[in-house]
Amino acid sequence: MPKKSDAFKRVVVGRALRSDKLGDTLLPKSLALPVFASDALSSVAYATQEIILVLALAGTVYLHFTWYAAVGVAVVMATVVTAYRQNVHAYPSGGGDYEVANTNLGQRYGLVVAAALLVDYILTVAVSASSGVDNLASTPLFSWMNDHQVG
């Protein structure tokens, strides 16, 4: 008899696929983009928030520079999307940054890239959690969290 956690997982995630069928599985673009580009998207989102915060702290007279910051963030995002698209076309097997470094530079550099990606993903989760708590603390329902904020 399956456990309740297994039934819950099947409802939320879906049925497990056989290992020999995974090679033929493709995600639709509407699902693949948020899953695989979440790191770049979160970086752009937090960068914009911090730029506006710094400009606001400098004074309202500097807030007109937000348009320049927005254009800069859009250019960076367009560059990242273009680079990802080229990467996908050059390496259709989907290995990502690790495969690119491993193929072009060797196994040692591939492992360095893999380690850097693990650190990057951990920091992205930390920043996302911190930002989420910060946003919750700004609402009246969770105002009690303001007493526990750092710095």
Structure in words:
The chain is extended. The model has no long low-confidence stretch (mean pLDDT 79). Helix content is 69%, strand content 0%. The chain contains 6 helices and no strands. It is mostly helical and 151 residues long. It has helices at 4-12, 29-36, 38-58, 66-90, 96-105, 107-137. It has a domain at 28-117. Helix 3 (38-58) runs antiparallel to helix 4. The relative contact order is 0.06.
Contiguous low-pLDDT stretches (5 residues minimum) are none
**Main beta-sheet strand count, sense and barrel state:** none
What class would the helix/strand composition place it in? Answer: mainly alpha
Summed over residues and divided by their number, the pLDDT gives a mean of: 79
Number of strands: 0
Strand content: under 5%
- Terminal CA distance reads 51 Å
The helicity comes to 55-70%
Morphology? extended
Measured on Cα atoms, how large is the radius of gyration? 21 Å
Secondary-structure element string: HHHHHH
Number of helices: 6
List keywords for this structure.
single chain; mainly alpha; 69% helix; extended
SSE layout and pairings?
Elements lengths: L3 H9 L16 H8 L1 H21 L7 H25 L5 H10 L1 H31 L14
Helix pairs in contact: 3-4, 3-6, 5-6
Give a quick rundown of the structure.
The chain is mostly helical. About 70% of the residues lie in helices and about 0% in strands.
